[in-house]
Amino acid sequence: MKINAITVEHGTTEAIIADMSNQLQSLGYTPSLVIGYFNTEHSVNALRETLVNLVDCPFMLTSSCSGALGSDGDKYASKNDLVLFCLEDSEGHYGVGVASIGKSDPQQAAQQALLNALENSGLEYESPALIWCALPPGEEEAILAGFADIAGSKIPVFGGSGADNDISGNWQFASREQSGSDLVMVSVLHTSKPLGMSYSSGYKPSDKTCKVTEAHGRELTSINGQSAADYYDALTGGSISAKLEGDDRSVLAETTLSPLGHEVSISHGVPEYLLSHPSDVTEQGGLSLFTEVSADTEFTLMEGSVESLAVRAEKVVANAIELLPISSEPVGVLMIYCAGCMLAIGDEVDTMLGHVRKGIDGIPVVAAYTFGEQGQFLDKQNRHGNLMISAVVFGS
Amino acid sequence: MKEDYEALLEKFNLLNRLKKQAEQAEQQQTQLLQGIREVLEANTTDELYTSMFEMFRAILPYQESFVLEHKEANSLRCTLATQNALIGSIWQMNPLFEKVLAGKASAVINKRLMKIDTSVLDSLESNVSALLLCPLTVRNNNEIIVFGHPEAGFYTQESVATFSHFQAYTDQALLSVQAKLMAMESAQLREAKENAERSLLRSEKMAAIGLLASGVAHEINNPVGFVKANMDFVQNEWPVLQKLVELTKSLSESSSATKEPLEALISYYQDSEIDWMMEEFTSVFKESADGLSRVENIVKSLKSFVHEDGSIELNEFDVVESINDVLILVKPEIKLKAELVLNLNPVPKVKGDKRKLGQVIVNLVVNASQAVNENGLITLTTTHDEQNNCVVITVEDNGSGIEEDALDNLFTPFYTTKTVGEGTGLGLYISQSIVEALGGSLQVSSEVGKGTIFTILLQIEGDESL
């Protein structure tokens, strides 16, 4: 198995394409799969067309908030306009499937995308080692349910939701066959070598808890019988007071280090928390989240810091490496890092990259900054969460 | 501080996961070894299959499991299964099976996604969806064990890795199952063979009884005839004795002064030849007792010969006594055709079932009687071969002898030189089997026109050189 991370830091779309082409042609092998992330300022169609001509393998391209992280040997940057995770595995089987939500509901689109990917892999009925996805933000739970309809809930689904740079809905997706903004894209990876996977939040539970008393989809209406926004504001010492009224109701920045966490029981271990990130105060005084929520859910107020988020990624990658078989060495890392966390730590994102690089001795790493993260905790159930970090390590 | 908490939390969860994995692996290994032990201790096929499938459950949960054998080029056949309905089902070869047979386990998300006929699985109530197909190597044959679970996607690459980790054990387990099955089948075959042999012995014995029946009947009829004649004589003379008793009674009741009763008694005694009659009665009673004794002996011999309770006696017995027991049955058959000369020398006892040796003697003597012409001579001899420490029994006739090419097939089942209806062709085959079961051997030598000698060699206890 050979893995390389192609990184193109900045430039015009034409310049990026030229640089990418050069690097692809110098790879010295034909990849089995390419997973790419790019800054949505660039034309996804131009990138797609170039890739169609340059590589003879399935690929998926997804926009990532403010670019994507890439590192390979001495070449690295926390924010590149384009990164490509190129994987060659002649004994493995890989397939990409795509379906547009516009033509069906999200769950059906997910089913179709996964069936396509399985068929394109050449092993249409076998369980892959991993399902790697890129999803349009907003309907992730339904999409995961669609994957489960086909493949059950145990095959690991990792990946992240596409992102733009200002939450204006300008996320883009492309595969060899098509491009768009409402595509469910999925890669099935029947790898010939083992994988290590880790999914985690970088937050600590506080002693403040509450219970959802009313919720509809992704809108949290009331907590403990009170307006959700007011209750959250009081719980956090007035962190969103300024946004309770007025035109600017966005609270993403204010809530990034104080999300709500739902405890996921892990037998014989310390509980993990699946995070929900409040994004806006609604006109009715509720809170919009990036995850679905239901009445009676017990929430714990979580605590994070720039420092913890900066060092967190390295720990997640290290855990994934630990889960490789003893005889296997890491040869590449695919990572998902929440865009909210990335924006919250600002320039410390370089520190984050530095920590990651320190732990992996120059092996290729690609990470996307996403608007939602999918993965499995130790309980082996696929979930969608916010402010999460995940890593898939490819072993030798 | 916060970083310390998160680092500790992460480390704790990771260590727990690794510990859990290690514990699980250890538990699986223990259960697998226990399972192999249980397989080896199974006494019935049902127990064996139950143990085997429970053993596999120790490493992988499943609803159904079955084994596919690759014997035909383009298909596999189910030979073992948790459900009888699966056994015997034929599965057409496909790329997935080829891959697994080549040694690579594979997890199937949902059998419905496979473009093969899975109707036999669809018919089960267990509603199996996910499949895990694993290679098994048993005695250099590649086979596939399939696990099925109702939950789609239940088996992942982790399941594949788990099975691969334990493949050496599972191969060993299936090898144990196969070995145990062969042992069980071998025991069943042995039992069936013994049953068939018992049945043959019985048939042959009944055939011998048929052959001997007329002679035996004649032998019984003779004493029965003269006993009946004797009884007629007694019945006829009985009134004379009754009269004598009445006269004696009158005499005893009369007074001593009267002479007439005494004179009447004396006169009757003299006129009726009572002395002669008493002599005759003594002779008749003795003759009748002898006759009945002969009948009793014949019936006893017949009963002993026919007796079959399935048991095999392994006591020491006297060969000469065994021969004498059956001679009473064969003598009537042969006495009109040949003279039977007995040279039954005392010999050491041998171990075995004397009734079975009797059957061999009957068979050989009857064969000899059929081989001789008029003035035939059949000689039965027992000797002790001290040098070889064995008892030698020979049955020799001066009949027509046997052609050399016929000699080669003499002990072959269903081979006979007799005309249809005279012989089953099993007599000598069975005789040889019986003698061999007694630890001895049956040999034949013959010269055309001069006669045939059958020689039975029986080892004496403590000598296994025959």
Strand coverage percent of chain B: 15-25%
What are the low-pLDDT stretches of chain B, counting only 5+ consecutive residues below 50? Answer: none
Q: Largest chain interface and its two residue counts?
A: A-B, 40 and 34 residues
Q: At the first level of CATH, what is the class of the largest domain in chain B?
A: Alpha Beta
Q: Helix and strand succession of chain B?
A: HHEEEHEHEEHHHHEHEEHEEHHEE
Share of residues in helices of chain B = 40-55%
Mean pLDDT of chain B: 81
Measure the end-to-end span of chain A: 7 Å
* Tally of separate helices of chain A: 9
How many helices of chain B? The count is: 12
Q: Give the helix proportion of chain A (percent range).
A: 25-40%
Largest sheet of chain B: 6 strands, antiparallel
Based on secondary structure, the structural category of chain A is alpha+beta
- The dominant shape of chain A is globular
Q: Would you identify the regions of chain A where 5 or more consecutive residues have pLDDT less than 50? A: none
Structural class of chain B, by secondary structure, is alpha+beta
Task: Please state the overall shape of chain B, judged from the principal axes of the Cα atoms.
Answer: elongated
The biggest beta sheet of chain A reads: 8 strands, antiparallel
Mean pLDDT of chain A: 92
This entry's quaternary arrangement is heterodimer
Describe this protein's structure.
The complex is a heterodimer of chains A (396) and B (466). Chain A is of the alpha+beta class and 396 residues long. Helices cover 26% and strands 38% of the residues of chain A. Chain A is built from 9 helices and 26 strands. In chain A, strands 14, 15, 16, 17, 18, 19, 20 and 21 form an 8-stranded antiparallel sheet that branches. A 6-stranded mixed sheet of chain A has the order 1-6-2-3-10-11, covered by helices on one side. In chain A, strands 5-4-23-22-26-13 form a 6-stranded mixed sheet. In chain A, helix 3 crosses helix 4. Chain B is an alpha+beta fold. Chain B has 3 domains: 2-184, 2-Layer Sandwich (Beta-Lactamase), CATH 3.30.450.40; 219-306; 315-459, Histidine kinase-like ATPase, C-terminal domain (Heat Shock Protein 90). Chain B is built from 12 helices and 13 strands. Chain B has a 6-stranded antiparallel sheet, sandwiched between helices. Chain B is elongated and about 150 Å long. Classes of the chains: A alpha+beta (396), B alpha+beta (466). Chain A binds chain B through residues 118, 124-129, 148, 150-156, 194-195, 200, 202-204, 266, 268-270, 272, 303-305, 307-308, 311-312, 315-316, 319, 322-323, 325, 378, and chain B through 2-3, 5-7, 9-10, 12-14, 16-20, 96, 106-111, 113-114, 130, 151-157, 160-161.
